[in-house]
Amino acid sequence: MTGHPAAGIPVSGTTRLYAVLGDPVAQVRAPSLMNPLFAELGIDAVLVPVHVRPEHLERVVRGLQRVENLDGMFVTVPHKVAVRRLADRCGPTVDVVGSANVLRREPDGSWLAENFDGSGFVSGLVGAGHDPRGRRVALVGAGGAGSAVAAALLAAGADRLALYDTDAATLGALAARLEAHWPGRVRALPGPDLRDADIAVNATPLGMRPDDPLPFPLDALPAGAVVADVVMKPHETRLLREAAALGHPVLHGIHMLEGQLNSYRAFFDVQ
After folding, report:
1. Local structure of 269: helix, strand or coil
2. DSSP three-state, residue 213
3. Which residue range is the domain that position 58 belongs to?
4. Window from 7-21, 75-89, 220-234 with minimum mean pLDDT
5. Do residues 141 and 170 both lie within one domain?
6. What residues are labeled active site?
7. Please, is 203 exposed, middle or buried when counting C-beta atoms within 10 Å of its C-beta (0-12, 13-18, 19+)?
8. Do 123 and 111 reside in the same domain of the chain?
9. For the whole model, what pTM was predicted?
10. Of these four, 59, 120, 124, 172, which has the most CB atoms within 10 Å of its CB?
């Protein structure tokens, strides 16, 4: 490898490394945002995607922990819940949501975990003119991204959050954690209930593949309800395409990542 993947900046023995772990990784967008940022700031660093299957996650995380010039990792589907258990210390958001999307390698070689998915999602939502304060939200998907988005929406003042996931145990555990912090504002449901939602969020991986079914039916949504997706690739998922055709305002998955950039800079001390 002879050059920076974003701007032709030479990669050398002094370059600091970051990895983004996922399965698959073809859809990851973090390198396309972080590498230009490194180049713009004149920082000698590079972020590369690393394809890790779930059964190999612990070995890879422990191995990368011994790489002296690796400063941190970004984490995507399906590893956000599992990687939280591999961290040596966790930030306050991780303890609430039970998942992590970044790990920072500390000077002593330990991992510090944090999760900025939720704050990034809300930042993107507000930036698009859809403040969740006082709104009724339906969210499908209680996994790594969904748990973070759910907590952030409640912290941002969402009036009520209706949750659904096909995994009843995961759904119940998340609802219990959220209820402890925001009592009376969370409902765990046996199916997606969109009848009175102001904002409907897909926080599942459905939409990454062209033959995926819709994560929830659009015909039950009230007119004018916002439809948001956390899937970043493709940019225009079937859900968003069909929602827009029905006249719903939509929010693309890339907004969640763009909303996290300042948090990443502060967390990794990228100046």
Report:
1. coil
2. coil
3. 16-115
4. 7-21
5. yes
6. 80
7. buried
8. no
9. 0.88
10. 120
